[in-house]
Automatic annotation (TrEMBL):
It comes from Sulfidibacter corallicola. PANTHER family: NITRATE_NITRITE RESPONSE REGULATOR PROTEIN NARP, TWO-COMPONENT RESPONSE REGULATOR. This is Response regulator transcription factor. The lineage of its organism: Bacteria, Pseudomonadati, Acidobacteriota, Holophagae, Acanthopleuribacterales. The modification 4-aspartylphosphate is found at residue 59. Residues 7-124 form the Response regulatory domain.
Length: 215
């Protein structure tokens, strides 16, 4: 496990959140926040002589250039910097726009600070920090719930299906007639209709249809 101190910068226009996070990072030993600004325009000026951080925490709803545009710009200039969104927005469009812009992670501002810290530290080992609700949305996007495929209705009548299943069970024509209390002639008639409807010509094909659930 990598124990190197994580160097972080922050672009966040909410002063209270920015200051609270700064205070929190000062209390921990494994994260060092070297710059905290309220817009990308200020970032462009203040970061000129700044040693490159490992991670930039980026709000989406920034004044001027928004956080997604800022992420794209940062990744173009500094491909090695990991950008992690820190935002109140959890709509799928914002999530995937940010990820497509190059963000390495996506955290909600409602995430407890200690959890933000632990998620950020996963970056040192190649992780992609995401708040649990965001991770779930990403998973659901790539693995949507599938609507069960409705099984096609049988082309056989109820009685024809009874005859077919009796044959699949290995009964002779006489035994089928006895089980269903019908004449052998009626059994033959049903079998003829069954074969015609299922487009088959033998009992073996009937058994195969049964195993495939196609009766």
């Amino acid at each position: 496990m990598n124990t190197k101190t994580l160097i972080v910068a922050m672009v966040e226009d909410d002063e209270e959140i920015r200051e609270n996070l700064l205070d929190y990072f000062e209390l921990v030993e494994d994260i060092d926040c070297v710059l905290a600004v309220d817009s990308m325009e200020v970032w462009n000026w203040e970061s000129r002589n700044l040693a490159q951080p490992d991670v930039v925490l980026m709000d989406i709803g920034l004044p001027g250039m928004n956080g997604i545009q800022g992420t794209r710009l940062l990744k173009e200039r500094h491909p090695d910097i990991d950008v992690v969104m820190l935002t109140v927005s959890e709509d799928p469009e914002s999530i995937f726009e940010a990820l497509c812009a190059g963000a390495s992670g996506y955290l909600l501002k409602s995430t407890p600070f200690d959890q933000i810290r632990s998620l950020l530290l996963t970056i040192r080992d190649g992780g992609a920090p995401m708040s649990p609700r965001i991770a779930l949305k990403v998973v659901q996007h790539f693995h949507p719930k599938r609507t069960p495929i409705e099984k096609p209705k049988s082309v056989l009548t109820g009685r024809e299906k009874e005859v077919a299943l009796a044959l699949v069970d290995g009964l002779s024509y006489k035994q089928v007639a006895e089980r269903l209390h019908i004449s052998i002639g009626t059994v033959y008639t049903h079998i003829k209709n069954i074969y015609k409807k299922l487009h088959i010509n033998s009992k073996a094909e009937l058994i195969k249809k049964s195993y495939k659930g196609e009766l």
